[in-house]
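Thread amino acids onto this structure.
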């Protein structure tokens, strides 16, 4: 396999991993906007009303960005947004852990207070950092196999 083909396949894998995770995370929250709002509010970082609106909007953003990544459309921009989301999640989880909050991250629905032994902060941070790396790869190398970018715009690396 050539180096270019390996890069394209790696890009496809990164697109699908990050994209599918975002779609699933958003889809699991979209049917429960109050729960999503409460999950964001549990981090106790944003003013209560701002956190509520972030909780309402976040599932929609996750789904849109995830679908664009799965399709390979506007890959660089979608990956940049996905990477920023993952890094924001890492910061949110890390600050909750550092402050001694005992909450479920709410990443795949749920959220809110949990017993201290139910927190999974370390695993959640590692997971989100790995997903951020998928996004960072795509920001640097957005070209990938089976992408709408390639179909619509050719073999341009700048999409």
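Threaded sequence (159 positions):
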């Amino acid at each position: 396999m050539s180096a270019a083909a390996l890069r394209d396949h790696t890009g496809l894998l990164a697109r699908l991993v990050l994209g599918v995770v975002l779609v699933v995370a958003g889809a699991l929250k979209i049917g429960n906007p109050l729960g999503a709002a409460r999950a964001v509010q549990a981090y106790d970082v944003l003013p209560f009303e701002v956190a509520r609106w972030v909780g309402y909007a976040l599932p929609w953003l996750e789904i849109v960005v995830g679908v664009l990544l799965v399709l390979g459309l506007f890959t660089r921009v979608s990956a940049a947004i996905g990477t920023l989301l993952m890094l924001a999640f890492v910061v949110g989880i890390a600050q909750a852990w550092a402050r001694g909050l005992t909450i479920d991250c709410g990443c795949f629905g749920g959220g809110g207070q949990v017993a201290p032994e139910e927190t999974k902060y370390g695993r959640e941070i590692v997971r989100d950092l790995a997903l951020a790396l998928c996004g960072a790869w795509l920001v640097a190398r957005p070209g990938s196999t089976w992408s709408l970018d390639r179909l619509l715009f050719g073999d341009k690396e700048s999409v």
